[in-house]
Amino acid sequence: MPRTRARTHGFSLIELITVVSIVIVLGSLALPVITSMGRAREFAAARTLARDLDSARDRALLTGRATFVVFSTAAEEYAVLEEPTLEAGRSAARPVVDPARRAAWTVRFVGPEWGVVDLSTVRVPGTSAPELRFDEKGRPTTSAGTPLVSGASVEFLGGTRVTVEPRTGLSRVRGSGT
Fold first, then answer.
1. Does residue 6 surpass a pLDDT of 70?
2. What span, in angstroms and rounded, lies between the C-alpha atoms of 74 and 6?
3. CATH level 3 topology of 60-178
4. Residues 81, 93: contact at Cβ < 8 Å?
């Protein structure tokens, strides 16, 4: 009578090694994709910011009133404000309504759309305030109205940077994804 081996329950060592090897290979393939997703989100956030800075500049030119872009790195957001009258100043500025959303023009880089996008640093030469003002001619200034001598910049934690040219007020995205 032939000997039959009793079937044991569980997996053999070779089966376990094979499965672990497959998991390691798949994980090493997925890691660059996950990393690039974060960079892509940051670059999309930078493009959104650059577009909004240009729109704030255009709004100042069209309305003849100063427009402010006020940043909060702690809240990962910025808001667009506008002076109600000429020479009213920053303290009188009101939120601008975003025409697309019909709500206050505030962008938060937190939530499902952005994942984790960190505003790291806001630099506006001549002031420590994280605010950029476009005067009635679209020129970038400090919130007090002093014209910029060098460009302003907003940097994200991953290294992507949005710069604002001091003479024209036009913005440009530099860094990851460019």
1. no
2. 65
3. minor pseudopilin epsh fold (3.55.40)
4. yes
Q: What is the DSSP string of 25-66?
A: HHHHHHHHHHHHHHHHHHHHHHHHHHHHHHHHHHHHHHHSS-
148 and 124 in contact (C-beta within 8 Å)?
A: yes
Query: 93 with 105: CB under 8 angstroms?
Result: no
Element (H, E) at 72: strand 67-72
Mean pLDDT of the chain: 86
- Nearest partner of 53 among 144, 109, 156, 131, judged by Cα: 131
CA distance 99 to 80: 12
As to burial, measured by CB atoms within 10 angstroms (0-12 exposed, 13-18 middle, 19+ buried), residue 76 is buried
> Nearest to residue 140, comparing CAs of 69, 87, 49?
69
End-to-end CA distance of the chain: 75
d(CA 140, CA 1): 95
Show the tokens assigned to 5.
């081996």
pTM for the whole structure: 0.78
Per DSSP, the three-state class of 14 is: helix
